[in-house]
Design brief:
InterPro entries: M10A_MMP, MetalloPept_cat_dom_sf, Pept_M10_metallopeptidase, Pept_M10A, Pept_M10A_Zn_BS, Peptidase_Metallo, Peptidoglycan-bd-like, PGBD-like_sf. This is Metalloendoproteinase 3-MMP. Keywords: Hydrolase, Metal-binding, Metalloprotease, Protease, Signal, Zinc, Zymogen. There is one protein chain. This protein is α/β, with parallel strands linked by helices. It folds into 2 domains: 76 residues, Muramoyl-pentapeptide Carboxypeptidase, domain 1, CATH 1.10.101; 172 residues, 3-Layer(aba) Sandwich (Collagenase (Catalytic Domain)). The protein is 32% helix and 10% strand. The strands form 2 sheets. The protein has a 6-stranded mixed sheet, with helices on one face. It is globular. The structure holds zinc ion (2 copies). One zinc ion (ZN) binds next to helix 6.
Length: 319
């Protein structure tokens, strides 16, 4: 009996030693996991003058993607005020929705779609490790593009690669490997080829660890550049404006190299989009453009559109 009790105790201790780190880790991950974009669906029907416990999440979302300025409002308020209404209208205008300022079905549905992590407006996206690669002013967001008839956009200040730099090298550095390295390499070479066909740029892969202009890879959660990834869907990837050359894919996504089955994400589409940022294109308002911020799971997009091509040609038309 005593021996049995001792054995049970031993078994329990072994269980704890083996499982405790995982239990603690999973609790931490659970705790750190941010709200999903689907939270926005619960806000359908709300308009100015109403309150809701999830309005702070909408404020954070609109701030993150450039529609709200910290200085203008408190991010923690549960009250739907005028400033929030203006931000919703701006979002609706940018996505060609009916501009009502109300959280109608089309608006919350659109906002809940998976997307690129780069803001649509304001375009302040800098690495905490390197401040020299993008505009980093902290003025009010630039809303002027709304008046512009073209749908493609550049970053504030039009950062781009120097005129003589038309051949860019790239390498892979990943923290995780959700798909085989050969698949990432194949997806990237398809994506780069599409930009080569439609711009003055050529690209070549160099061995891992070699000096290169561009670095691509999979990361999860907080990966040191101040823009943590957020698990499946929501934000899928991000990249930096010229000439920083970093392209990060969220390793938590269900990536697909072949045309994706329902729920999976086309890695060629997303990589093509992020390369557009590396070259100096911001988000287009054209829903068919590769440079449109949102990506539809289960759908492949493998070619640049006239809007993307007009954008890259215009950016590099002058030295
Ligand atoms: Zn983007
Ligand atoms: Zn990153």
């Amino acid at each position: 009996m005593a021996a049995n009790t001792t054995n049970c105790l031993k078994a329990f201790l072994v269980f704890l030693i083996v499982h405790l780190p995982f239990l603690v880790l999973s609790r931490c991950l659970e705790h750190k996991n941010p709200q999903s974009f689907n939270t926005l669906l619960s806000l359908e029907g709300l308009s100015k003058g109403q309150t809701d416990k999830n309005l702070p999440y909408l404020r954070q979302y609109l701030k993150r993607f450039g529609y709200l300025n910290y200085k203008e409002t408190t991010l923690n308020g549960n009250y739907f005020d005028e400033v929030l209404e203006s931000a919703v209208k701006l979002y609706q205008r940018n996505y060609h929705l009916k501009v009502t300022g109300k959280l109608d079905f089309d608006t919350v549905k659109k906002a809940a779609n998976p997307r690129c992590g780069f803001p649509d407006i304001g375009l302040r996206f800098k690495s905490i490790n390197n401040g020299d690669h993008t505009n980093n002013g902290d003025d009010d967001p630039d809303f002027l593009f709304i008046k512009n008839s073209s749908l493609y956009k550049f970053f504030d200040g039009n950062p781009k690669w120097p005129a003589e730099k038309t051949h860019l090298t790239y390498t892979f550095i990943s923290a995780v490997h959700p798909i085989p390295q050969e698949d990432l390499s194949s997806a990237s070479s398809q994506a780069f080829a599409e930009w080569t066909r439609n711009s003055k740029f050529t690209f070549a892969e160099v061995r891992e660890g070699a000096v290169s202009d561009l670095r691509l890879g999979f990361f999860v959660g907080d990966h040191g550049d101040g823009h943590p990834f957020d698990g499946p869907l929501n934000v899928l990837a991000h990249a930096f404006a010229p000439t920083y050359g970093r392209l990060h894919l969220d390793g938590a996504e269900a990536w697909s190299l072949s045309p994706p089955p329902p729920g999976q994400i086309d890695i060629v589409w997303v990589t093509m989009h992020e390369i557009g940022h590396l070259l100096g294109l911001a988000h287009s308002s054209d829903p068919n453009a590769v440079m449109f911020a949102q990506v539809t799971p289960g759908v492949a997009r493998r070619a640049l559109t006239p809007d993307d091509i007009a954008g890259i040609q215009a950016l590099y038309a002058t030295p």
